[in-house]
Every structure is written in structure tokens, then in C-alpha cells.
Amino acid sequence: xxxxxxxxxxxxxxxxxxxxxxxxxxxxxxxxxxxxxxxxxxxxxxxxxxxxxxxxxxxxxxxxxxxxxxxxxxxxxxxxxxxxxxxxxxxxxxxxxxxxxxxxxxxxxxxxxxxxxxxxxxxxxxxxxxxxxxxxxxxxxxxxxxxxxxxxxxxxxxxxxxxxxxxxxxxxxxxxxxxxxxxxxxxxxxxxxxxxxxxxxxxxxxxxxxxxxxxxxxxxxxxxxxxxxxxxxxxxxxxxxxxxxxxxxxxxxxxxxxxxxxxxxxxxxxxxxxxxxxxxxxxxxxxxxxxxxxxxxxxxxxxxxxxxxxxxxxxxxxxxxxxxxxxxxxxxxxxxxxxxxxxxxxxxxxxxxxxxxxxxxxxxxxxxxxxx
Length: 372
Prior knowledge:
single chain; Rossmann fold; alpha/beta; 372 residues; Arc Repressor Mutant, subunit A; DNA polymerase, domain 1; nine-stranded mixed β-sheet
């Protein structure tokens, strides 16, 4: 069995969540070794429950039926899977107590390597909340932060839209990536794929279930160096993301509101619990400045040690893309046309060059070269 199929098969095993999966990796070394082991050895490890042992004892052909949808999806455009512990798996996410064993990604996986800030809040914000979410996300994206959220209605969607105006954004979903939830965000999802990535730990075909969204929230906070709460009632799900961020040792920011506004009570609660009150994007940039610089240095070192993208663009292609980008902004589509490469390859190279500080992206799908 090939590596991808082995990882997917173990991912589908009943009662094998992120913690059990990681224990299995530590004990057996790889999913392939797990699947090659007999029931006696698997049972002796003490890792797996009975239902998992029964599943792993099935024939390979029977287990393969469960991963057919995943493999078919992987054949599509902009479809990727990242494995826990691999070089392209986000380092910050790997540091949480229960990192996903694998990530399904639509779009550019390199977006997950950039410094991210989670922006979350109410699904039913008022007009002021929507404006603040979009404005903050736009300015923070232009300052070099990738904005990460859950693609829900309300603050999430406004944060993604603002980030698309200023830079890059990542959406983490609680469903399989073969569907968009909520469906009315379909156009937004398409834009996110073009300018960032949509991510899920859930297998293809997974429907939106209430229990999926707290798991999604830990990924949103786990990918990010901090979480900003824009508007939230006291029982808002965004408070779960903020508390997870605190537990993960990340920064939490909250925008205050009127004492008469019920949508401000969650933010006020967080501030009383230690979240940093912010009034401007400069407050966040100033607080994160040292961490941002450190992350960027690590990204440059990581990119240099890899010698390029995980999709192995050749040096001539990188040079070709760089030569196509002037010191005045140009459309990425023009770079694609000039180089004769695919949009995916050009976008990946541009992101690597941005990490190295050689180019900068601009609103409207534009990019420009920087003086070194």
C-alpha cells in the first residue's frame, strides 16, 4: 500500500483520533507499519480500542472502499494532503496537544507556512462589527499577516473578504472539502482558493455536524500566532477559539464595544480574563512584532534548507517568475501568461519569494519586486 493510502486508511479507522494516531506513529513509526502488523501486535501496543482492531483486521480491499472518495478528490486541481511531521506541515499547528494527523488542503499549501492571525466573532454581527472585521483584516493582511478564520457567516466571512482585499487568507472548515458550508459562501470559497487555502482535517464526504466545529476551532487557533475577537456574545463559539488560543500559549486580542451591546459582552469577558484590548491594527502589529520577525526568519531558513517549494519548482522557473515581476505592481495573471507556467506553480513560487522578502503581493491579484 502506498503512503497516501496508508495515512488515509488509518485516518478513517474508528476511534483513532489525533492523539491515538500520534501514539501509533510513535510506536510503529508509520501508518504503513501499523497496517502491516498483525492483530496480536496491534493489541499488545495498548493503543487501539476493539473497534479499531476489528477495522484494521479487515482485508485491504475492504478498507480501500473507505478512502475511494479521498483519492478521487486528490486527483482534482489545487487538491493536496499534508501529513503530520512532514516538512510542509505547519510548525505552529504541530505544537498543539492534538494536531490533526493530516490536513486536506484546497489552494496553495504554502499559505499555511506564513504567519497567521485568527479573526473570529459572531455569526450575526451588527453593521459596525462587519465593518471593523473587514477593515482590520484588510489592514493586517497588507501588513503581512495571513488572516485565518472559519468561513462561517458574519465576522468570519467579513474577515476573509477584507483579507482578500489586502493579501492572503486561510479558511478552516468543519466539513469535507468536497462541499462548502454554508453554501451561500461558495463564491467566497472560490476566491479563497485563488488567494490562499481552505483546510480541513475531515475526510471527503463529511457533513457539517455540531461536534466538528470545536475541532475546527482548535486548528484555527493552532495555525495562528494569535486570535482577534471582533464581536461576540457571552455564548459565542468564537470564545471557544479564543480560549483554545490561550491554552495553546498564543496571544488573544479583543475589540471592546458599548456596555449596552450584547455582542460586546464576550469580548469584555475575554479582556477581563487577560485578552489584550485593541483599538487599532497598530496595537496588534506592535504586540506581535517580535514574534513576526522571528517567524519570518525561520521561514527564510526553512525555505533555504528545502531549496525551494515542496512541489519542486526548478531554479530556472523561479528565475523566470522573478524576472517577470517588475518593481511596479503587475497582475499575477500577466506573470502566468509571460512565463507559460501554470497558475498553481507561479502562485507557489511567488509565495516562496515573498517569504524570502524578494517580492510583495498587493491588492487586486498584483505582485511587485522588492529591492534587496
